[in-house]
């Protein structure tokens, strides 16, 4: 790859992924909640009535447990999630949203949906979805090269 290609990739990263994360985080109604924390809340909410552990959340986000445990700790301290021990195996802890957490989650989920609907409308829904599909393919190829 040429130096110009690498510069273009770095610029695309800074203008897209980094900016998107910063923008989404700025939209969250509670300044103490990062976008990563919101995504943890999203995973918990999407698990529905199925109990979910910190390990399962880490697996879903494709990160280590330690990478999200501090964020989970903050969500616990803020009273947005709660932790309950398994009745059989007390070491196993399940995470659920509190009523306050669920309220904050749905308020922000609505904000993000409206924003993404606007992006899809302006960019074109099919093009938007196709672009995200391409990004996912690129990420998979990068992961494969890291494993080699």
Automatic annotation (TrEMBL):
Pfam family, one: MarR_2
Keywords: DNA-binding, Transcription, Transcription regulation
Tree of life domain: Bacteria
InterPro entries with a match to the protein in the record: ArsR-like_HTH, HTH_MarR-typ, MarR/SlyA-like, Tscrpt_reg_MarR-type_CS, WH-like_DNA-bd_sf, WH_DNA-bd_sf
Signal peptide residue numbers: none
Entry's Gene Ontology molecular function annotations: DNA binding; DNA-binding transcription factor activity
Residues passing through the membrane, by range: none
Domain HTH marR-type: 1-144
Gene Ontology biological process terms from the UniProt entry: response to stress
Name of protein: MarR family transcriptional regulator
Organism: Pediococcus acidilactici
């Amino acid at each position: 790859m040429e130096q110009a290609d690498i510069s273009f990739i770095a610029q695309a990263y800074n203008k897209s992924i980094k900016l998107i994360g910063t923008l989404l985080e700025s939209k969250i109604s509670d300044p103490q909640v990062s976008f990563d924390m919101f995504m943890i809340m999203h995973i918990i909410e999407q698990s529905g009535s199925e109990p979910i552990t910190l390990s399962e959340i880490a697996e879903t986000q494709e990160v280590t447990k330690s990478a999200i445990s501090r964020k989970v700790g903050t969500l616990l301290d803020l009273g947005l999630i709660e932790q309950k021990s398994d009745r059989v195996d007390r070491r196993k802890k399940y995470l659920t949203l509190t009523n306050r957490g669920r309220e904050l989650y749905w308020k922000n989920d609505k904000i993000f949906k409206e924003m993404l609907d606007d992006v899809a409308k302006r960019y074109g829904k099919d093009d938007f979805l196709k672009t995200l599909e391409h990004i996912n393919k690129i990420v998979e190829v990068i992961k494969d090269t890291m494993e080699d």
